Amino acid sequence: MGLLCIIGSVAQATALPTFDAEYTAFRYGKKLGYALLSVENVDDETYRMEYHSKVSLFFLSDKRTEISDFAFIDDKIVPKNYRYSRTGTGSNKSIKVVFDAGKEKIFIDKEPGIDWQDQFDNQLYRLDLQQKLAQGQKEFSYQVINYRGQERDYHLKVMGTEQLTLPYGMLEGIKVEIVRHNSTRETFAWFSPQLNYQLVRLQQFKDDKEQGDIQLKTFTATQ
Questions:
Q1: What region does 12 belong to: left with phi over 0, alpha with psi -120 to 50, or beta?
Q2: 8-state DSSP, 201
Q3: End-to-end CA distance of the chain, in Å?
Q4: How open is the CA angle 169-216-121, to the nearest 5 degrees?
Q5: Which domain holds residue 148?
Q6: What does the pLDDT profile of the chain (223 residues) look like in tens digits?
Q7: With b meaning 16 or more CB within 10 Å and e meaning fewer, what string describes 70-84?
Q8: Which of 212, 209, 213, 181 is closest to 200 using CA atoms?
Q9: CA separation for the pair 135, 153 (Å, rounded)
Q10: DSSP 122-187
Q11: In sequence order, which residues have a C-beta less than 8 Å from that of residue 113 and are 6 or more positions away?
Q12: Which of 125, 129, 197, 207 is the most exposed, having the fewest neighbouring CB atoms within 10 Å of its CB?
């Protein structure tokens, strides 16, 4: 079935849980800033996932925004467009990605379109992952257009469950590793069954050194 058929389906669309979440950003236990994450229902055909973060260390600063518009039809997440911007120390960056269902193409900025073969954007694969965790799945593979506009294959696997002490409080978290071959980066994410499998912690290492650790501070279900 083509992507246009999925979006144009007359089947009843199930509601996707919406929320507002705030995270505290740490590095080696020191607070560096914050991150905000939300999913809202924009209209009958569109949901929006937004991420905003601001961190600073000494004279260095980094502010990022990611916005994903998507449809949710027959329990499927279908990307529409993705925007990313970064400002702060160093070069400012921005990108726009359009997922064109009619042409079954993905357009990255002004580059020629590439075939749309179930790729997600840099955010939405995590939202799909939450659904699959709720179904009890343990391993996952995704094709992703990342925030640099590059195509990447991500493989993720469940490592187990842990009791977490977060700014939010005590939560049980399912620990997931993002596996990157031929990379010195390690990324771990925790999702809580108590909060609709919401992302509650994200930690990254490079060359065995912690790069960042965001932990849930507040969570409000809005639907």
A1: beta
A2: E
A3: 30
A4: 155
A5: 3-221
A6: 344 443 444 344 467 999 999 999 998 889 999 999 999 999 988 999 999 999 998 888 999 999 999 999 888 999 999 999 999 999 999 999 999 999 999 999 989 999 999 999 999 999 999 999 999 999 999 999 999 999 999 999 999 999 999 999 999 999 999 987 767 788 999 999 999 999 999 999 988 888 899 999 999 999 7
A7: bbbbeebbbbbbbbb
A8: 213
A9: 22
A10: TTHHHHHHHHHHHTT--EEEEEEE-TTS-EEEEEEEEEEEEEEEETTEEEEEEEEEEE-TT-SEEE
A11: 100, 103, 105, 106, 107
A12: 207
Provide the whole-model pTM: 0.88
> CA angle 29-35-38, nearest 5°?
140
Q: How many residues does the chain have?
A: 223
The residue whose two tokens read 């469950």 is 161
Burial (0-12, 13-18, 19+ Cβ within 10 Å), 179:
middle
Residue type, 81: N
Cβ(84)–Cβ(94) under 8 Å?
A: yes
Residue 15 exposed, middle or buried by CB count within 10 Å (0-12, 13-18, 19+): exposed
Amino acid residing at 110: K
Domain count along the chain: 1
Tokens representing 56 are 């600073």
Q: Which CATH number belongs to the domain containing residue 130 in this structure?
A: 2.50.20
